[in-house]
Amino acid sequence: MLITFKCRSCPDVVMLENLAQYLVGIVGKRLGERGVITHDELPGAITKLESAIHTDKQERAEHDGHFHEGEEGHEHHEIPIGLAQRAFPFLDMLRAAQKENTDVLWGV
Q: Which DSSP helix (H) or strand (E) runs through 2?
């Protein structure tokens, strides 16, 4: 199922429900049928999401040292997409909403 986040400050952001649930959870909300991140909640939500991205980047950097790319006897494997790439459109929307003093809605 797709979830569409709306804000008067920027274009809609559409994502799969499981990612939406994860990102909304990071900022301290529950993904219900409808929801809102008010302009008053945006500074805290942005800080929480940025912190989660920073932590993910650190963990990935530590894990990247364990890959054996090109070494004999080790199969090639893809490095999974990180939180920063997945969360960027949503984080960008939160920042735009904060700048314009608007709310972020879903399910409307």
A: strand 2-7
Question: Residue 43's pLDDT is what?
Answer: 97
DSSP 30-76: ---SSEEE-TTTHHHHHHHHHHHHHHHHHHHHHHHTT--TT-TT---
Domain layout of the chain by residue ranges: 1-61+81-104
104, 6 Cβ separation under 8 angstroms:
yes
By the 8 A CB rule, do 6 and 107 touch?
no
- Per-residue pLDDT of 74-98, as tens digits, reads 565 666 788 989 999 999 999 999 9
